[in-house]
Amino acid sequence: MTQSTDPTLAAGTEAPAPGTEPFAPGTESFASGSEITAEFEVTGWDERAYDEPAEGGTLARVTVRKAFRGAVDGTSVAELLTAANRAYVASERFTGSIAGRHGSVVYQHGGVDDAENPRTFGHIVPGTATGDLAGLRGTITFRHDDTGHHVTLVLG
């Protein structure tokens, strides 16, 4: 197993507004527009290069395991395709709880770090949420800074 710089942590998002309630008033549904932010740590990184040219950057496949804590609490496994440790695309299955609701869900996300304007993008894959998370929709972004690794879900 080779430890590498995790490109999923390249870009930032703003912290959620204080007091943001993740559930629609009087319902069991997640409120549209709610932001949920949590911390995570990378617990496994297994990288395998599949194209290593003399110039232009290595292409690799990476299996990443994460442990989340906070409003998002559980574990995930992701398969990333990386380009020169500057960009990635990933499919990631999370299992655990989000705002106290238990189940699993698949995220698809990616990012590019051009050293000046790093950014990530991502979505909850429709139809993949199970258990109490069934029907969950929205976007996901990852951020890495001096305070650690963070994930933010914006529910839709």
TrEMBL record:
One Pfam family in the UniProt entry: DUF3224
Matches recorded under Gene3D superfamilies: SO1590-like
Record region (Disordered): 1-30
Domain of life: Bacteria
Protein name, entry field: DUF3224 domain-containing protein
